[in-house]
Amino acid sequence: MHITILGSGSAGNCTLIETDTTALLVDAGLSGRQIAQRLALIGRHIDHITGVVLTHEHSDHTRGLGVLCKSRPLPVYANRLTAEAVAADPEWQERVRISWRLFSTGASFEVGDLLVESFSVPHDAYDPVNFVIRHPNSGLAIGVLTDLGHATKLVTERVRAMDVLVVEANHDLKLLQEDAARPWALKQRIMSRHGHLSNDAAATLTSEVASDKLRHVFLAHLSRDCNRPELAQQVVADKLRHIGARHIAVAVASQDKPTATLAL
C-alpha cells in the first residue's frame, strides 16, 4: 500500500492511495492539469486511476473531475446528496457526464482490492463524509480526515488503529482571529463546529487515537494565511511527545507539490 498527497490546502485537495492493482484518488480538488502533472512527477499516469471517492461537493475537492472523467467513464464514488450537488452545477452539466457510483453514508464498498469505509463528519456541506481505506490482504489501514469542524465520538472511534492518518490542521486560532483579510462572519464559520479543525484540535484528535500501530501522520488542508507548516507540525508533534508517542512521524502536506510517496 502506498500513499501520496498530491496537494492539500484551501485551494485544492487530492490524495492518491495505491496497491499493486488499484489506484484510488480521495477527492479531486486540484485542476485536472495539476492532477496529471503531479501524477507524472511521481511516475504515475492519469489513465491508471481506478476511481475517485468524494468527501463532499465543495470545489476544492471536486475541481478536477471534469478532466478526469472526460476521456473515459471513470467511476466516481459519492453519496447521493454530494452527487446531486455536483451534478446540479451548470458547469458540470456542460462539460462532462460523470459515471456515478452512489453509496449510503456509513456504508463500506470495494474499489479494486481496497475496502473503503465511509462515515459522517460535521462540516458545512450537504452530506460530508470521511474515509478509512483498508487493504484487507495486508491488514493495512489509512484514515483520511479533512473538512470537519470537530471530532465527534464516531470520528474518533473510526480512525483508531490506523497505520497512517491524514488529518486536517487548517488554522492556528490566534492567526485566524488576527487575520485582517477575513470578515468576522467567515472566521466564525471556520471556527464553528461545522467548519475546520485547528492545529490544537488536530493535535488532540491525533493523541486520542495514537497507538503502537499508528506510525505516520500527515497534516492536511493548511490555510496559507492563517497557519504555518512548521507551527502545525510543532503543535501536533509536541502533543504526541507529551503522551510518549515518539514513534509517530508527523509530516505536513503542501498545496504546491506532492508529498514523498510513503510505502507501507
Instruction: For the largest sheet, list the strands in their spatial order.
Output: 6-5-4-3-2-1-14
> Which stretches of 5+ consecutive residues score pLDDT under 50?
none
Structural class: alpha/beta
Helix-strand string: EEEHEHHEHHEEEEEHEHHHEHEE
Q: Tally the helices.
A: 10
Instruction: Classify the beta-strand content into a percent band.
Output: 25-35%
Helix content: 25-40%
What does the overall shape look like? globular
Query: What is the straight-line distance between the termini?
Result: 5 Å
Q: What's the mean pLDDT score?
A: 95
Number of strands: 14
Largest beta-sheet characterization: 7 strands, mixed
Q: Mind telling me the C-alpha Rg?
A: 17 Å
Describe the structure in your own words:
- By secondary structure, the protein is α/β, with parallel strands linked by helices.
- The protein contains 10 helices and 14 strands.
- The protein has helices at 32-41, 59-62, 65-70, 80-87, 90-95, 153-158, 173-178, 184-191, 199-209, 229-242, and strands spanning 2-7, 14-18, 23-26, 51-53, 75-78, 99-102, 108-111, 114-120, 129-135, 140-145, 164-168, 216-220, 249-252, 262-263.
- Strand 9 (129-135) and strand 10 form a beta hairpin.
- It is globular, with a radius of gyration of 17 Å.
- The N and C termini lie close together (5 Å).
- The mean pLDDT is 95.
What is the secondary structure topology, with strand pairs?
Blueprint: E1 2-7, E2 14-18, E3 23-26, H1 32-41, E4 51-53, H2 59-62, H3 65-70, E5 75-78, H4 80-87, H5 90-95, E6 99-102, E7 108-111, E8 114-120, E9 129-135, E10 140-145, H6 153-158, E11 164-168, H7 173-178, H8 184-191, H9 199-209, E12 216-220, H10 229-242, E13 249-252, E14 262-263
Parallel strand pairs: 3-4, 4-5, 5-6, 10-11, 11-12, 12-13
Antiparallel strand pairs: 1-2, 1-14, 2-3, 7-8, 8-9, 9-10
Helix pairs in contact: 9-10
